[in-house]
Amino acid sequence: MLMRLRVSEIFVSVQGEGVTAGLPSAFVRLQGCSVGCSWCDTKYSWAQDAGQETTLDQVLTAVAEAGVENVVVTGGEPLEHPAFVGLVEALKSRGHRVEVETAGIIPPPTIAVDQWNVSLKLRHSNVATEKRLNPEAIYTFRDLGAWFKFVVATERDIDEVIQIQRGYRLPSKQILLMPLGMQRSDQLQRMPVVMEWCRCYGFRFSPRLHVLAWGPKRGV
User: Fold this and answer.
1) Contact by Cβ (8 Å): 20, 50
2) In which domain, by residue range, is 122 found?
3) Nearest CA to 132 among 211, 10, 15, 35?
4) Which of 114, 113, 6, 112 is nearest to 58 (CA)?
5) How many domains does the chain have?
6) What helix, strand, coil percent values describe the chain, rounded to 5?
């Protein structure tokens, strides 16, 4: 029986965020997300029945044609997708390096992911605390050496990041700060102060290269 997936989009670009920013990558955006962040830039990936239904073989062919080693499995919320494990296992069996972008609300399955990028949501996302912070999941990701990304704009956001860090005992070296904003002007305005917060607290700064290069454009 063919494994079927509902995919929002597949495209080739460079990783825009995190410790591998700038790395040529194929992106597989799985459809469906129940988190509902107010500032999400991919709201078209939320609806479970949207996107395009395809097969695992077709996805693997599209990734192979991209001609890059690194694959970013994202969403939506990829861990909600029933075919997530099968997709990662198939990508790894074909020699790909696999990164996963997740909101960190679901404990990760036991699977050979090369890099977990966990974007924990802050209060400004307008998501209820019990829906955006799952202790079991956070502790598991922490122990797997995941990178925790926080989108910040104000001192209040930094206070909240520190509160989460202390509450879940997250190493500073595993925390990245990114400027809030989907316009190039927002990024340029906020980058200096976010870099200063990183210097003060020992966090790592992450650019948002896709925003700086293209702004709020899909498929980049």
Assistant:
1) no
2) 4-214
3) 35
4) 6
5) 1
6) 40, 25, 40
Provide CB contacts within 8 A for 167, sequence distance 6+: none
CB-based contacts of 203: which residues, under 8 Å, 6+ apart? 161, 172, 175, 176, 177, 197
Kindly state whether residue 98 falls inside one of the protein's structural domains: yes
219 domain-assigned: no
Token pair in block for residue 64: 């192979």
* Mean pLDDT to the nearest integer, 196-214: 93
The whole-angstrom distance between residue 197's C-alpha and the CA centroid of its chain comes to 21
AA identity, residue 115? Q
- The per-residue pLDDT for range 72-116, each reduced to its tens digit, is 999 999 999 999 999 999 999 999 999 999 999 999 999 999 999
| pTM (whole model) above 0.70 | yes
For residue 46, give the CATH number of its domain.
3.20.20.70
